[in-house]
Every structure is written in structure tokens, then in C-alpha cells.
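REQUEST ID: PR-0412
SUBMITTED BY: lab tech R.K.
PRIORITY: routine
TASK: structure prediction, single protein chain
INPUT:
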Amino acid sequence: MNDTTVTLVGNVATAVEYRDTVTGGVARFRFAVTARRWDRERGLWTDGNTSFYTVSAWRSLGANLAASVSVGEPLVVHGRLKVREEERDGQRKTFVDVDAVAVGHDLSRGTAAFRRAPRAESRLQPEPQTESGSGSGSGARPEQDPWAVAAEEATEVKPQLVTAS
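STATUS: complete
OUTPUT:
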């Protein structure tokens, strides 16, 4: 698929709204991006037009974003660009959305302290013990081996979302 990916640098314009859905949680907010240009004649920066985007972040990215971001904070948003047209009040309007893949604070304008999100509980059950008192004999516990988790999940019949952190 040929998606158009963009990276936007701007500020959070509205409060982050988080909702749980059937396919996983989603966070949405409006994002303001203002072009700045150096005015040589006056010797200072001037603001250009401001563009507004609706940013959507799904599943763990959405949950982490809702817990981490407030109105006015500077962010860098990377994701898939979606342009849609709708008719409202007899007029055709164009809306520009971004399905976020990654979001982070703009560290050129401040500092941040990263906190790793707690992992969801493992869906694996403890390995059954054999008569000799050990499992498969690998010695590694499944919760310590992320590749074992991925391999076991891949053998299950029902489709599942596998995330790594």
C-alpha cells in the first residue's frame, strides 16, 4: 500500500480524548502546526499560517498518549496522512487527519522524563512439568524469552495483536 507518511512538528491544540473501542482504544486530539520564517528585512522570525490536523493514535500508543500529553505541549507526530471531504451546511469541507505511528515531545523546546509503560500480563501459562521435574529442558522461562512468546502466539489459531516494548 502506498500511504503518504508525514512528520509534523507543532502543539497540542485540544485536550486528548480517549475512548475504548472494539478494536482497541483510540486517542484523538487536534494538532496545530505553524510555519515560521526568518524575515531578513526586519531581522526576526514571523509566524505563517497555522494548519490544524486531527491526530488519531490506536491501542497502546493511544493509551500512552492520553496519559502523557496536555494542551499546549510541543510534539513531533509521525503517521499516515488522510485527506477527506465532507459536505456540511451545504458547503464542501476538507479535513486532514493523521493516523499516528509515533508521537513524542519536541525536545528542542523542553525536557521530558520517559517512563516505560507497564506491560500487559502475559497470556502464557506456566510450562507443564514433566516427570523429571522440568519443562522442555530449555532452562529459560517463557516470560524471560520474548521470542518464545512470539513463537507460541504465532501457533495459536485465532488472530491476535502482538506488541513488543
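NOTES: Confidence is low (pLDDT under 50) at residues 132-142, 146-160.
REVIEWED BY: pending
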